[in-house]
Amino acid sequence: MVTDLHGKLDYATYLGLDRLLSAQRPLSSPEHHDETLFIIQHQTTELWFKLVIHELREAMRLVAADQLEPSFKILARVKHIQQQLLGQWSVLATLTPTEYVQFRHVLGPASGIQSYQNRLIEYLLGNREARFVEVFKHQPEVYKTLNDALRAPSLYDEFLRHLARRGMPVPQDVLNRDLTTQYEPHEGVLRVFKTIYDDPHRCWDAYEMCEKLVDIDEAALLWRFRHLKVVQRVIGMKRGTGGTAGAAYLRNIFDRPLFPELWDVRTMVGPEVNPS
Length: 276
Known about the structure:
- The longest helix has 32 residues, at 204-235.
- By secondary structure, the chain is an all-alpha fold.
- Helices cover 60% and strands 0% of the residues.
């Protein structure tokens, strides 16, 4: 065991722990015990978000280069990160309404709706709610990053383009759609996925990619649902600090799939059912 670390790289320096562990600065006065929990919960979430973005961008690069198989490990990693994020809600759920109301006022207009990394993940995965970009006008670099992501293909778009390059009949109006608008389910895409699911051995990598995307979509839906329930548990139906409707807003979005045809195709698999 190395004990003389003078002038050498040590664990704390490599990880920047002096900055990381001094970034928790409660604003309540006198300091409320549970504000530290609230801050760390959201800071660790943002660290996981950073890794999700890092992984998704690489997966999208691989899919755009028609390299599906190398993306599988990356997408599996994203799913496991999502499971970590899902599990974190149980920690925040220990915060009671009585405790939170004692320091909620120090947040002012600060709100999770202002998490640009969460918004970027939504855009990378194809949830194109363009109105939320306006929240970030006061941060020019972030504003540009989100606008660029809003106008670029999502992970789903890249997969559909890959399938088209393989000769599968992905409709041209899907391939050429306005990327800044919310994706709408298309019967032609559903037929493509039915072909893949009815004979997976003919294009196993595409079939496996479909299942990886469903893993991520399911985890995202569960995360949103858990978010909704924790918000209801802690603040009930109060408005969010950032001006949203709080739980009412979350209730409207939690069951919105990112890759709709990959859910719909499950009803269509088999020779007895055909898409109209």
